[in-house]
C-alpha cells in the first residue's frame, strides 16, 4: 500500500493539533462545545479530501469496508463489557498493515458507523478524530516498523492509544456538562474514570497482540492475490 510520506505526515499531525488547540485559544467562555465539534470535523476533512482525489481501486474500497465492518462488529460483540473492546486493536492493525491513510479512514469510519448502533451525537466527531488518529499514527512508516514487528512495542502503543482516547474523550465529557472547560473538573473526571481507562488500555494491548498476526497474514494474502497496491 502507498505510505504517507514523512513530511506530509508531520504536516497533517500539526494541522490536526493546531485545529484542536485553536478551540482553547480563541474561545474563553461559553462556546467550547460547538466550536470544538466543528474544528474536529475540520481536522478530519483534509485526509478524506486527499483520499477522494486518488484514483481508487474498487478492491481497495471493499477491503476498507471489510476492515471497518470487522472493527464495528468487535465493538458490538463486547458492548456488554465496559471498556473492553477489540475495535481499537483492529484499527491499529489496519494502520500497521495498510498504511496511515487507510488507518485513519478505518478508525474514523468505524466510529461513525458503530454509532449507528450505539447512538450518534456531538461526541461522534471526537470519536472519529481519536480513533482515526490512532490508526494514522500506527500506519506511519517509522512507527509501523516498531509495533508491527515487536509485541513489546505493540503493547506500549496499545496502552498509549487507550490513554489518548480516554483523555481526549474526557475533554468532550467536561465540555458537554455546561459548555465550559474546567481543569479541576477534567482532572477529577480522569481520576474517576481511571478503572475504565486501565481496562481499556489493557484491552487494546491484549487484542492487538492476539489478532495482529492472524489479520496481518490474511491481509497479505488478499493484497497479493488481488494485486492491491
Automatic annotation (TrEMBL):
The chain crosses the membrane at residues 9-26, 32-49, 61-81, 87-107, 128-147, 153-175, 187-207. Keywords: Membrane, Transmembrane, Transmembrane helix. Coiled coil: none annotated. It comes from the Bacteria. InterPro entries: ECF_trnsprt_substrate-spec. The keyword Transmembrane applies. The keyword Membrane applies. This is ECF transporter S component. It comes from Candidatus Enterococcus lemimoniae. The lineage of its organism: Bacteria, Bacillati, Bacillota, Bacilli, Lactobacillales.
